[in-house]
UniProtKB/TrEMBL annotation:
It comes from Pedobacter riviphilus. Residues 1-23 form the signal peptide. This is Glycoside hydrolase family 92 protein. Coiled coil: none annotated. Residues 273-734 form the Glycosyl hydrolase family domain. Pfam families: Glyco_hydro_92, Glyco_hydro_92N. Residues 32-267 form the Glycosyl hydrolase family 92 N-terminal domain. Gene3D superfamilies: 2.70.98.10, alpha-1,2-mannosidase, alpha-1,2-mannosidases domains, GH92 mannosidase domain.
Length: 755
């Protein structure tokens, strides 16, 4: 009996230990990340394996079927043409897709398949049932070849593991340097076999980004039986080949233990640096350990923001947080060498050079999010922008792979730099930064020349005049704030005037922002619902949407309407009148509530404008509706382009209960929290804790707030309050509060400052 009792105790102890270990395992935040969220419809997210802000995004490419395949992958597809090492996430233009590798068996096929049923090309169907997508890991079964593909990555190395059927016939891989996504096409390429297991080369291409240069080393886990190099479809003799449209067929006798592993390291600088990157980041062949390391890197970043919420909300939240860290991506080597915009190599830089700056999108919330969660990255972002300024003569607009695409409008590197400066970041040359932001505003292009004279941009001379002018005014406000901080009094006065020029486009008779002709007359006929994609007075939007694009001076916009009541009456109409874009509307105008478009970034601040007019409960209603209608844990869980993290950054901020309406005044406007608790981990072992009391679907209205033990009546919170560490309790109820956030002195204003 004693033996049985002792055994029972030991069994119980072991069981409790196992349960505790399982509980610890279940607390991992990476389990909530589903990279397939946003991969359907217009989300355009990257699906595959990467690490936070890594240079490599290794993932599958489908047959390209148009706009919704900009990332190379769409959930609607059932085909894979190869696994490529660079991808965009959530953009509206297809590019990259460098160095595609496709494992295969049987007859060698050199042409990529054109349809799912094409038996004369290399591709394979697949089923989502046999697909696994996690943070840092991707796996899929290639039906045609019965090959299990597994992918993981370090910052600069993609790691493939292919499991073949036993005794597979003619196992081989196709390395395709022609293949690219969307608009991408090769300009020059090369292969060179260094030894029995090593191939090196380069791929230069032209696409959305005009001049892309990439070097690589491919390391195989077993010797090559034979290699055939092709220029188009013509086989070339020898182990070295240079040309434009190159492919390689690499053959093996058998696959050792049925597993073929491939490591591919990239460099923007040289083959030698690619080899160095490989040796430094991934010298071994332990695939499981590499997956574990990738998972750990994601876990470390995700753990900066721990929330309590339902599992579904956690799926949406942590996948959104994951999406904000796909880019900006590293564009340098382990020794800090990088390729400049001027195509010169810069050795051993004192910062991490980055690429993939979708600034028209990310300045609104994604970049402000970095100033809280990724404080170690902010100086790198600014230093990269200043390097670009010195190399190309202006700050980046939409920068990709060391090339300027000049996509979208505004000079939105400005708010990113100014926000960093005002929040106390000083790991960059402040004087150079001010020179660069001022130069942005003094260009003679895209109507900026009219702004310099404190005039309106004539709609009959400059396309998208209203959209451009409103974006310029935001940037000019930011320049004024940095000028003020540097005691540049004249510049402060000048750029403050420019920041108010939005008023010139407001027609008080109809209460819309609209185009004005050179003769001073309003452009007619005028339809506030109409939108012609990139061909009217707005930018991917209509007058209903652009009338509210004054986040730098909301109180001034309220004055134009004649006060809170007419302002909120008009704002109510935005969310209730049905949209009618006409025949040429932008596909980016999606996620609709009336004329409001959550799927397009210039709209993102609008729900929070009610709080400026003393009606925060209407903001709460809208945030909850947007959350319910437009964010889900399904593949179509995004209502528009992810836009390199902005769509998800909106959710992260909003879920915590606040949002940076003004991108550079250091204030976050309260809405309604979607989580029950949140803990932000900050440098120096500081934490900022958010506790939401009585939160529920019905209890969506803030009743009162307690900050660090004291009543807090403001309907906004300052950046430095969060980053100093502390705690906040937000008390919720099922009816709007009659007092919280209503008084004029408690409302947010543009002059709020984090300093």
């Amino acid at each position: 009996m004693q033996f049985k009792k002792t055994s029972s105790i030991l069994f119980l102890t072991a069981s409790l230990f196992s349960l505790n270990a399982a509980a610890q395992q279940n607390t991992k935040l990476t389990q909530y990340v589903d990279p397939l969220i946003g991969s359907a419809k217009h989300g355009h997210v990257f699906v595959g394996a990467n690490v936070p802000f890594g240079a490599v995004q290794l993932g599958p490419n489908n047959i390209f079927e148009g706009w919704d395949w900009c990332s190379g992958y769409n959930y609607a597809s059932n085909t894979i043409t190869g696994f490529a090492h660079t991808h965009l996430s959530g953009t509206g233009i297809g590019d990259l897709g460098d160095i595609s590798i496709m494992p295969a068996t049987g007859k060698l096929l050199l042409e990529k398949g054109k349809t799912a049923e094409d038996q004369n090309g290399y591709l394979s169907k697949f089923s989502h049932q046999n697909e696994i997508a996690k943070a840092g890991y991707y796996s899929v079964l290639l039906d045609k070849y019965q090959i299990k593909a597994e992918l993981t990555a370090t910052e600069r190395v993609g790691f493939h593991q292919y499991t073949f059927k036993k005794d597979a016939e003619n196992p081989h891989i196709i390395i395709d340097l022609i293949e690219g996504i969307g608009w991408d096409a090769p300009v020059s390429a090369s292969f060179k076999q260094l030894d029995a297991t090593t191939i090196v080369g380069h791929r230069n291409s032209k696409g959305w980004a005009n001049d892309q240069r990439l070097y690589f080393v491919i390391k195989l886990s077993q010797p090559i039986k034979s290699i055939a190099l092709y220029d188009s479809t013509v086989v070339k003799s020898g182990a070295t080949l240079s040309g434009k449209k190159l492919k390689a067929a690499v053959n093996f006798n058998t696959i050792n233990h049925d597993k073929l592993q491939i490591k591919v390291a990239l460099s923007p600088v040289s083959i030698e640096n690619a080899i160095l990157n490989l040796k430094t980041e991934l010298p071994g062949w332990d695939f499981a350990a590499a997956v574990k390391n990738s998972d750990a890197k994601w876990e470390k970043e995700l753990a900066k923001l721990k929330i309590e919420a339902s599992n579904t909300t956690k799926n949406i939240f942590y996948t959104a947080l994951y999406h904000t860290m796909v880019a900006p991506s590293l564009f340098n080597d382990v020794n800090k060498d990088y390729l400049g915009t001027d195509k010169k190599v810069y050795k051993k830089a004192n910062f991490n050079n980055l690429t993939t700056f979708s600034l028209w999108d990310t300045y609104r919330a994604a970049n402000p999010l970095y100033t809280i969660l990724h404080q170690d990255k902010v100086n790198d972002v600014v230093n990269t922008m200043l390097a670009i300024y010195k190399q190309q003569g202006k700050l980046p607009v939409w920068h990709l792979m060391g090339s300027e695409t000049n996509t979208m409008v505004g000079y939105h590197a400005v708010p990113v730099i100014v926000d960093a400066y005002l929040k106390g970041y000083r790991g960059f040359d402040v004087n150079l930064a001010y020179e660069a932001i001022k130069q942005s505003a003094m260009q003679k292009t895209d109507g900026i020349e009219y702004i310099q004279e404190l005039k309106f941009i004539p709609a009959d001379k400059i396309n998208e005049s209203v959209g451009k002018a409103l974006e310029y005014a935001i940037d000019d406000y930011c320049i004024a704030q940095m000028a003020k901080g540097l005691n540049k009094t004249a510049d402060y006065a000048y750029f403050s005037k420019r920041s108010k020029l939005y008023r010139l486009y407001f027609d008080p008779s109809i209460q819309f922002m609209r185009g004005k002709l050179a003769n001073g007359n309003w452009r007619s006929p005028f339809d506030p619902f109409s939108s012609k994609h990139r061909e009217d007075d707005y930018v991917e939007g209509n007058a209903w949407q652009y009338t509210w694009l004054v986040p730098q001076d909301v109180e001034g916009l309220i004055d134009l309407f004649g006060g809170d009541k007419p302002f909120t009456n008009k704002l109510d109409s935005l969310f209730t009148l049905p949209l009618d874009l006409g025949t040429n509307g932008s596909p980016d105008i999606s996620g609709l509530i009336g004329n409001y478009a959550q799927g397009n970034e210039p709209n993102h601040h609008i729900p929070y404008l009610y709080t400026y007019a003393g009606q925060p409960w209407k903001t709460a209603d809208l945030i909850r509706k947007i959350d319910k209608d437009f964010y889900s844990s399904k593949p179509d869980g995004l209502c528009g382009n992810e836009d390199v993290g902005q769509m998800s950054a909106w959710y992260i901020f909003s879920a915590m209960g606040f949002y940076p309406v003004n991108p550079a005044n250091g204030a976050y406007v309260f809405g309604t929290p979607l989580v029950n608790d949140a803990i932000i981990s900050l440098p120096g072992n500081k934490k900022f804790s958010i506790r939401v009391v009585d939160n529920s679907a019905e209890n969506k209205y803030i009743q009162k707030i307690v900050l660090n033990g004291k009543p807090y009546t403001k309907s906004y919170i300052l950046h430095n309050t969060i980053t100093a560490g502390g705690n906040i309790q937000i008390y919720m109820g099922n009816k709007p509060s009659a007092s919280w956030g209503v008084k004029q002195e408690d409302r947010p204003v543009s002059t709020n400052s984090s300093r």
